[in-house]
Amino acid sequence: MKLWGGRFTKETDKLVEDFHSSISFDHKLYQYDIRGSIAHARMLGKTGVISSEEADEIIKGLQGISADLETGKVELNVQAEDIHMNIEQLLTQRIGDVGKKLHTGRSRNDQVALDTRLYMKNELKETAYLLIEVQKAIVEVAEKNVRTIMPGYTHLQKAQPITFAHHLMAYFEMFQRDWERLYDCYKRTDVCPLGAGALAGTTFPIDRNMVAEELGFAGITGNSLDAVSDRDYLVEYTAAAALIMTHLSRFCEEIILWASHEFAFIDLDDAYSTGSSIMPQKKNPDVAELIRGKTGRVYGHLVGLLTMIKGLPLAYNKDLQEDKEAIFDVVDTVKKSLLVFAPMLATIKVSENRMYQGAQGGFTNATDVADYLVNKGMGFRDAHRVVGELVLWAIKEGRNLTEMTLEEYQELSSLFTEDIFQAISIEACVERRDVHGGPAPGKVAAAIDLAKKVIETNKRDI
């Protein structure tokens, strides 16, 4: 008979039982469920709701169940519906009627809210740690390429010369925002809902703060209705995870392009590439492609979670059972993606020569020619037109701007003098962009030094 079956006159239909059961996935919460139950039992004993001897017996029984689940000595029962009922059923089988007192002063509604918060606190830290590993890989590769010049792009068209380190550090900034979002989400996850009961608290003289303190929460929830129905922290994590995957996907897209024969800017390590079953020459960036593909899974779960909660009246509704499969998959997907991305990036081989050749093509120094004329007194719009005509001329001649003669320059403007060629060398174009946040090697080196300090701070704050 079900633990809740007192008011029912017949057994649950087998189809409903299978449809209703969540043990196939929420078994992942067993360690958190037992931790919460131990804290709850200890509090019940301390406040006199049950005797201290009964509390000790319950705690000992729960610890034994935990150990047996860890070693696979016990199996969970589908007919017990969920992880909460399974643990309680196992406890009662082991210690008898005393086990039935564990659920005094609580409901599965506040119990599952507690379990998922404990789970998310752990996974937020795990995800933040893996993000730091990606940041470290970025900094390590960037530090080796402070003077590696490459073309910067807009619209995937060559735009202006930058350095590979500067390009990489753009992703450091993205992942730092991701880390901060996780850190911020943790604060809103770190409140204990136990004691909210089904929706209206309890008549027993429980000590909610005692439970929260034992479980390592910063505080307790302020409203019992909100406590059992709130899943914002799951949505917030998923939204943060979606942005992490967005940034990983963008990075992977560029890695895929850079590793192609057409770009040949980098070579991926064999350990993070795969081959073809038919074409022996192939070296495919499958890891990067999979991360790019898995991004859609996380997006889908975010929409699913938002849709699930958008029309729910207060307080708990069974719809909320659908949060677990989604959040478990989100956590697994983002953690695995971060875990494999960091070493994939750290082991790339960079073709400095190929990147430099890329920066020399596509008239990436055209803006610097315009700036040169502006520094000689010409208005920028006039300079823009002159350089546009210059580029058109160079295209027709099949040359780049450094290959044209001074006489050809002077046919378009008498302001050009011999120093134009030094002013528009690729190295000079990068060096002169010496503003905070710019690609000049000195500024990028400073950004890398700051990033190292940020990483150390992030590690301390996890």
Task: Please tell me about this protein's structure.
With 462 residues, the chain is mainly alpha-helical. The protein has three domains: 5-104, Fumarase C, Chain B, domain 1; 109-148 and 160-351, Fumarase C, Chain A, domain 2 (Up-down Bundle), CATH 1.20.200.10; 358-443, Fumarase/aspartase (C-terminal domain) (Ribonucleotide Reductase Protein R1, domain 1, Orthogonal Bundle), CATH 1.10.40.30. It is 62% helix and 5% strand. It has 19 helices and six strands. The protein has helices spanning 14-20, 23-26, 30-47, 52-71, 83-95, 108-143, 164-189, 208-214, 224-229, 232-258, 286-309, 323-346, 352-360, 366-375, 380-397, 406-412, 420-423, 426-431, 441-461; strands at residues 149-154, 157-163, 191-192, 219-220, 266-267, 349-350. Helix 3 (30-47) packs antiparallel against helix 4 and helix 6 runs antiparallel to helix 19 (441-461). It is elongated. It starts with 13 loop residues before the first helix and ends with a helix. The mean pLDDT is 94.
CATH classification class of the largest domain: Mainly Alpha
CATH topology of the largest domain: Fumarase C, Chain A, domain 2
Count of beta strands: 6
Spell the H/E element sequence: HHHHHHEEHEHEHHEHHEHHHHHHH
The average pLDDT score comes to: 94
**Count of separate structural domains:** 3
Q: Major sheet, described briefly?
A: 2 strands, antiparallel
User: What would you give as the CATH superfamily of the largest domain?
Assistant: Fumarase/aspartase (Central domain)
Which structural class best describes the helix and strand composition?
mainly alpha
Helix content: 55-70%
End-to-end C-alpha gap = 45 Å
Radius of gyration: 31 Å
Alpha plus pi helix count: 19
Quaternary status of these chains? single chain
- The CATH architecture classification of the largest domain is Up-down Bundle
The proportion of strand residues reads: under 5%
Which stretches of 5+ consecutive residues score pLDDT under 50?
A: none
Tell me the overall shape.
elongated
Q: How would you write the strand order of the largest sheet? A: 1-2
